[in-house]
Amino acid sequence: MKLFLCIFIFSSTIIFAQTDWQKWGKANYSYAVKDNFHKRDLSFDAKNPARFVLKSLLDSYWFFISDVDGDNCAFSPTCSNFFLQSVSKTNLVQGTLMFFDRFTRDMDFIAKFDFYPRVPDGHFYDPISLYTLNKNEIKYIPPSVIVNNE
Amino acid sequence: MKKTIFLILCYCSILIAQSVDQQNEVNLFSPPNIKKFADYLFCSHDYLRAALEYQRYLSTNHNDTVSYKTAIAYSKIGNYSKAAKLFASIDHQSHLFPDAQLEYYKALFQDEDYFGLRNDFINVDLSNQFVLSPRDKKLFYFSYLFTNDKLPSENKFLSHFEGTDFQRVKDFYSWKEAPPYKSSLVAGILSAIIPGLGKFYVNEYSDGVFAFLAAAALGYLSYTDFKAEHNFRGWVFGGLAAGFYAGNIYGSIAAAQIYNVKIQFDFVNSLKVFLNAKNYFIPEINFCR
Prior knowledge:
The complex is a heterodimer. Chain A is mainly α. In chain A, about 45% of the residues lie in helices and about 5% in strands. The longest helix of chain A has 21 residues, at about 50-70. Chain B contains 14 helices and no strands. The interface of A and B includes residues 104, 110, 133, 140 and 142 of A.
């Protein structure tokens, strides 16, 4: 009987032994904060004088202030990117008005959660297409939705 | 010793035992078994795999009930165009044809093919293939609420609805006839009078408060700087105040447009919720009893 018990325990141990050793291998996690400033397009834009001046100012802002300060804008695209995109999409006057409006909304720290959907990294999604005054471009996305804007 | 050997043999035979009876091997891929498996998947709400198994069955057999269930499965997983095609393929002689016809309209509706749905209704009505009951016409009239076409008269529209649905549908009709949109012009004018008021008009209260504070604070700084003869700072703050003021007028106009799109979106959503709750006015057949 003892022999049987020994064989039983031994064979059971072999049968149910853990073979999936990979499960217990070392995980290669990286806890480094992903920096976004490497993705910056810091090139000069010489299409016209206005864009050259604007892009140079924004490049300087990104290089000397924003990247040093860190990822602090609550929105995606960030306010500076929003400014650049809105001027590119419309014109300098309309783009500037869009930027001032965006900056006002950025100051509002109360109602963002109720109005804007989020992108996966947690920023509030607020594309320029909503503010060009072209009704056909407005696509409403409820705040409960996670937008993948990659 | 004998007892031990006996026990070891028993133990080994259990370990090595085959679960499949190889002598009486079953063809799991015979059409009746495929159908059984598909039915099981269908009743387990695994509609994607059920549809694929039904299609496999239909490749060798013709069965209206299976075609109907395949179409239902496709409809459940959101493949409405495929569902519509399958519902349309149900034989006119089949006992499922009247339900399939309604499900076909439902699939067109869910596929947002409202014009196709209406054309089909009109063609069926004209051809006198079969008589459309008032219940069948509900979807036809409901499709007008999803498009910008001219609405039929209120009496004609509501005559197809009764009971608890009547008031709800009447509300939908009234909304569609006179949507509670906000005027971009009014929003802009209000923000020009008092910064932020246009945002209040479109229910963005905190944005309105911050717009007012930004314009007012910068305007005040500009005023005090000019008063103290700090002209450069006065111009800087004055320029920023003007920027925020003009930006807020622009933003209020944009916010009114966004508000209108949002309430249209909410309206369409509430219509869809209502129709889903009513199963698009179609009696549901329970195949899984």
